[in-house]
Design a protein that fits this description.
This protein is an alpha/beta fold. The radius of gyration is 21 Å and the shape is globular. The protein has eleven helices and five strands. The chain is about 50% helix and about 10% strand. The structure holds zinc ion.
Length: about 280
């Protein structure tokens, strides 16, 4: 995998860190941009999770050569189940049989993975089937849900997953778009959020721009809280209410500091780390 984009490289760094530090979560929602380009990164992650040599190999975190890695590439690894939508929906019975199979303990290795493609096609009934499974999985079972748009995934699912994104966030064209993207990062609880700090630095090169951006962000938040539905607030929802209140508080406390002769970089670092705490 040569010539990785910025966001792909970030993704690889991040999953390497997860594996090295043994901080694997039970469930991930991975947002994909171009599915054909991004899916190999999902498989890389799966191999990192399942390959028995993954941590000891010095060339990288997964060997790509062992029996496990080869079977994964061929789509024949028994402890990796891939669920795809049956037509327009992922049906309840597909998940029931997954559950049944995975609750039978017949592990080859110490972990099993299941992937649900197009997680936005989980309807409330099929979602219900796996909620408990996502929440209290059997030891060693890891869920990877994929979607092209996390905002189309049911909140009940979203809130139980760690979100990683492979969507390129560098295509920023207008200020409005920039602001919306920024709000999406704030709201999403994305684990890659920490990497967006660099992008924020470029969006807000100085105090004046930062004040403009945060003024718009605050306005959009307030519109949402006061129940004004519009295009800009359409992706926000009720479960974000508390977060949004915290963000407004932070913005209102931090923005007035800009009139003083402060070190702008330090100020941006500080507001950013306060945002991360809310996440
Ligand atoms: Zn391997």
């Amino acid at each position: 995998m040569n010539d990785l984009t910025y966001i792909q490289q970030r993704f690889v760094n991040y999953i390497e860190t997860i594996i090295k530090t043994d901080k694997l979560s039970h469930s991930y929602l991975i947002e994909l941009g171009d599915v054909s380009l991004d899916y190999p990164f999902v498989l890389l992650f799966v191999k990192m999770i399942l390959c028995p040599y993954s941590v000891s190999n010095i060339d990288g975190l997964n060997c790509n050569r062992c029996n496990t890695c080869q079977l994964i590439d061929e789509g024949n690894f028994p402890d990796l189940e891939i669920i795809e939508a049956d037509g327009m929906q992922i049906k309840k019975k597909q998940l029931l049989s997954l559950k049944e199979e995975y609750q039978n303990y017949s592990l080859i290795g110490h972990r099993r993975v299941y992937i649900i493609r197009e997680a936005e096609k989980l309807n409330p009934s099929s979602a219900n089937t796996i909620l408990k499974f996502l929440e209290e999985p059997e030891e060693g079972i890891i869920a990877i849900l994929l979607t092209k748009n996390r905002y189309q995934v049911l909140d009940t699912i979203l809130s139980r997953c760690q979100v990683l994104s492979l969507v390129d966030s560098t295509e920023i064209s207008s200020v409005d778009d920039t602001v919306i993207r920024f709000i999406r990062y704030l709201i999403s609880g994305d684990d890659l959020f920490v990497y967006y700090k660099e992008i924020l630095d470029s969006i807000m090169p100085d105090k004046t721009v930062a004040k403009e951006v945060f003024d718009i962000v605050e306005k959009i938040f307030i519109q949402f809280l006061s129940g004004q539905e519009n295009k800009q607030t359409s992706f926000l929802n009720d479960t974000h209410r508390d977060k949004i209140l915290s963000y407004i508080t932070i913005i209102e406390e931090e923005i007035p500091k800009l009139v003083y002769n402060i070190n702008y970089k330090l100020w941006l670092d500080s507001i950013f780390s306060r945002f991360v705490e809310v996440k």
